[in-house]
Amino acid sequence: MKKISTFENKKVLVLGLAKSGASAARVLSDLGAIVTVNDGKELGENKEAQDLLENGIRVISGGHPVELLDEDFSLMVKNPGIPYENPMVVKAMEKDIPVITEVELAYLISEADIIGITGTNGKTTTTTLIADILNEGGLSAKLSGNIGFPASEVAEKATENDTLVMELSSFQLMGIEKFRPEIAVITNIFSAHLDYHGNQQNYEAAKWRIQENMKDSDFLVINFNQEKLRKLSEETKAQVIPFSTLEKVDGAYALDGKIYFRDEYILDVDSLSLPGEHNVENALAAIAVAKLKGVSNQSIINILTTFSGVKHRLQYLGDIEGVKFYNDSKATNILATQKALSGFENNKLWLLAGGLDRGNGFDDLIPDIENLKGMIVFGETAPKLKEIAEKLNITVLESENVGTAARLAFDNAELGEVILLSPANASWDQYPNFEIRGDVFIQEFNKLKEEI
């Protein structure tokens, strides 16, 4: 960690805890700041706050008293999920107190180079692929950011021999000032988080901030399948490295079933371990970064042909008696399930779907599930899903939950077929979150494997 004096004896307010807030508070305290943490949770149910108190850091919990801003703070470090309309944030900005997110702090203290990855879809898979490939190639890559490892905590421990591979959300990027990655990746931009950003234009502007401090010695890896990103790429100072599945570009591309980087053949598309067109795009982005970092083709191939996916995101679990299992519990909406389905042959696929009923229908799924081998439905939306399956004359079976659905699918599946959990619904009718839902599926897979 760079021992910067920027925050020494400065009063800093950390607004909102969770992992990133707690990490920022500790780092700032280590840098000599006079830290106050404010979190809405009551102290008794707030372990992070209790830990900070034990380390001598001031904590005000159980609410957000706006009058706290009357103290002479030099900086606010805001939890990314807290909107800018929050009264505490509004007052800070009225008083001209800079408001940053924790990734800005990570940048300021990092001795390591930073590779930043953002986009609407594919961020986590691409981030993980890049880190795995760099490590396979002998570099020391550290996952950080929105992927679950607080950026400032990782940056604090990283050395100049490391590389931080940092997943970045639009929320985090809104709170940067000097943040500058050596390589930035934009996987794609679709419509998302409009409740937070207000409109699509604001959302896209937040994503585009990833490159705003980059110089002509830096690289921007960007999806040329999207016209809007192609046009935006004309506005950056960084060197643009495009990737595309539609045409040959001066970067990474797929052509006639083969993947190239600047005319150099890397591997066949069919060799990729993750199914789906979207995962070809993710692989191309990762290849571009790896080649920029000097990683060998063999290291790239080793990872891309064996990568089993990020947990709960089209994660390949393995096969039992020739039947393959994929865990895509993260698919909490129809669009995510449509993307998952695009990677498989429907006539060999058993889809496990269902969950919380939010009042929507599933007609949008109809083109994507035609000719499915079968569906196993569960949860509150089981009747709705069963109805559209029956319209298409798809074999459909109802099951109690994800665990029983996995077993029922396996009982009906044949050699060479695939069982895919991609629910198209939130989990909250039966499970606290999609992770626990996915874990139940994994546990049932493991049980079945032991029984055979």
From TrEMBL:
The metabolic or biological pathway listed in the UniProt record of this protein is:
Cell wall biogenesis; peptidoglycan biosynthesis
Q: Where is the Mur ligase central domain?
A: 117-290
What are the transmembrane regions? none
Q: Which UniProt keywords apply?
A: ATP-binding, Cell cycle, Cell division, Cell shape, Cell wall biogenesis/degradation, Cytoplasm, Ligase, Nucleotide-binding, Peptidoglycan synthesis
Example GO molecular function term?
A: ATP binding
Indicate the segments forming the Mur ligase C-terminal domain, all copies: 312-424
Looking at the record's lineage, which domain of life comes first?
Answer: Bacteria
> GO cellular component terms?
cytoplasm
Any idea of its EC number?
Answer: 6.3.2.9
Keyword Cell wall biogenesis/degradation in the entry? The reply is yes
Compartments reported by the entry: Cytoplasm
Q: Which InterPro entries match?
A: Mur-like_cat_sf, Mur_ligase_C, Mur_ligase_C_dom_sf, Mur_ligase_cen, MurD
Tell me what this protein is called: UDP-N-acetylmuramoylalanine--D-glutamate ligase
